[in-house]
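*** Residues and shapes ***
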Amino acid sequence: MKTLLRTLLYLALIVWLGAEIFFPIVAAVTFTTLRPDTHMAGSIVGQLLGILHQMGLVSGILALAMFALAPVAGVCKRRKVLAPMALLLLMIGLTLYSQFSIVPSMERDRVAAGGAIDAADAANPSRIDFEKLHSRAEYVEEAILILGLATVALAAWAEAAKP
């Protein structure tokens, strides 16, 4: 039981963090490959971001469940799982914020700018807001990655302090 719990916990964290690390590489390759058609590249990356968020939410919920079961299974002490669980809740909250607030707002701005954001004038309010939201989305994903790394460290710390 302990081995299964640990395996599922670390697998959930690996999947989420691996995707967070790999996503910017995929985005860069997509934009480089489709350089003349940034609208198409943006559409592909937007779809991939939705998949990343879905993977993160499933992984986050699974990891939360495994942390909740860890003290019961004797993997670690109850109070040692509170910090990593809090970080996971922050990660899930940031993922929900990005998926259901930032991404739809960026899409609204893209449509308002005429469909292709790069074709809009740099002074266009929709393009300005889009660029601001894009920057915010990058910071949110970076924060999720940093919180995830901290979660892994706290998970190892919690497990090292055996009950």
Remarks:
- Residues 2-160 form one domain.
- The chain has one domain: 2-160.
- Residues 38-73 form the longest helix (36 residues).
- The CA atoms of residues 85 and 125 lie 40 Å apart.
